[in-house]
Design brief:
Elements: E1 12-16, H1 24-36, E2 40-43, H2 58-70, E3 74-79, H3 86-90, H4 96-100, E4 104-107, H5 112-121, E5 125-127, H6 139-150, E6 155-158, E7 167-177, H7 178-183, E8 196-203, H8 207-219, E9 228-235, H9 248-255, E10 263-264, E11 278-280, E12 283-289, E13 292-297
Parallel strand pairs: 1-2, 1-3, 3-4, 4-5, 7-8, 8-9, 9-10
Antiparallel strand pairs: 5-11, 6-13, 7-12, 12-13
Helix pairs in contact: 8-9
Length: 298
Amino acid sequence: MHKPIALSEGDLIYIVSPAKSIEAQQINHAKKTMEDWGYKVEISKHASNRCNYFSGSDNERLSDLQKVLDDPKVKAIVCARGGYGSVRILDQLNWSGFKTHPKWIVGFSDITVFHLRCAILGIMSLHATMPLNFSSNSKEALSTLDAALSGKKFEINTPPSSLNKEGVASGKLIGGNLSIIFSLLGTQERFEFEEGILFLEDLSEQLYHLDRMFFALKKAGVFNKINGLIVGGMTDLKDTTPSFGMTYEEIILEKMEGIAIPICFNFPSGHIDDNRAMILGAPVEIEVHSIGVKLRYI
């Protein structure tokens, strides 16, 4: 996997909105934050526009993203928010300029669509917070993003959980939003799961739908290929009436029965304020112990 060049003071970051619309004040707050880190920050033409649900028409969002993918002066593309819409423009994008001049693509949730394409192209990307959330994020969420962009070393430590499965494993860090990975599982936009450390997170899903998605991953052989499983924020999950009868942890552990790999729950990444940056495609080691969990880059 190719790692984009670390950013230096004065390097150019562009904020784009490839999916749902967002308020201009949220973009401007993020712009100032990243300028305070020492970067030059520009905002794409349609970033704070609105076209029904989206920040612009498909063609407008496509044009904004294509421009910054092609521009060798741009060192990082920070997606303003997720929601839905990235897949609508994915196949119309020309990635040749991006392959010639790789740069960080930053975001999570719906932006997992682009993380999947980066993985196919052999280029690392950043699962990290976005301008929608900058004002509410933890200090660590922002500091790990800055560290990842600038090439500083960092690791992520988190408290233990009685539901964790202990062990130590290494491999390539892959993953992102469960619903996106599930929806593209049978397409070219899918990870090479072999010997990976798989990270998954999601938001506002029904427990029975979570069950369905984990069954799909199991039936696709994913859990027999990976070296470790990291479960991040599983936020605002919904139950039915009558109840589905299982917690999300029980749903996951049922599908992992008989698979001897480390499993970590409540990892600080996903649709939560403490959404720490993760370098997808990078080699990592995960240590899951009774005293806590550590993810480090190797």
